[in-house]
Write a structure and sequence with these properties.
The chain has about 120 residues and is an all-beta fold. It has no helices and eleven strands. The mean pLDDT is about 95.
């Protein structure tokens, strides 16, 4: 289970921070990341971080967003700076890993609205 927090309404140029905590029968978490979906558009990757610290960003957020994770807390963060109206979307946390029975899993957070006003 992934539970998100953060998000909300901010003016262009502002900042927001999203958090996502994983819970349940977790043995390993491989990838943790953030996707977003704007109205009428597909859900796209924003940023992803592996358990080894490898990071990928969508080109549109490079230099503005920073993803990080705290493995001890099974938590991933997304610091969003210099937000633009085009960043308005529902943001979803995503993670994958395996449990104590070596069964692989993938989960989504509940989604949180981020609205950037111009």
């Amino acid at each position: 289970q992934l539970v998100q927090s953060g998000g909300g309404l901010v003016q262009a140029g502002g900042s927001l921070r999203l958090s996502c905590v994983a819970s349940g029968r977790i043995f390993n978490i491989y990838h943790m990341g953030w996707y977003r979906q704007a109205p009428g558009k597909e859900r796209d990757l924003v940023a992803e971080i592996s358990h080894l610290g490898s990071i990928d960003y969508a080109d549109s957020v490079k230099g503005r967003f920073t993803i990080s994770r705290d493995n001890a807390k099974d938590t991933v963060y997304l610091q969003m700076n210099n937000l633009e109206p085009e960043d308005t979307a529902v943001y979803y946390c995503n993670a994958d890993g395996n449990d104590y029975d070596a069964i692989e899993w993938r989960a989504w957070g509940q989604g949180t609205q981020v609205t950037v006003s111009s």
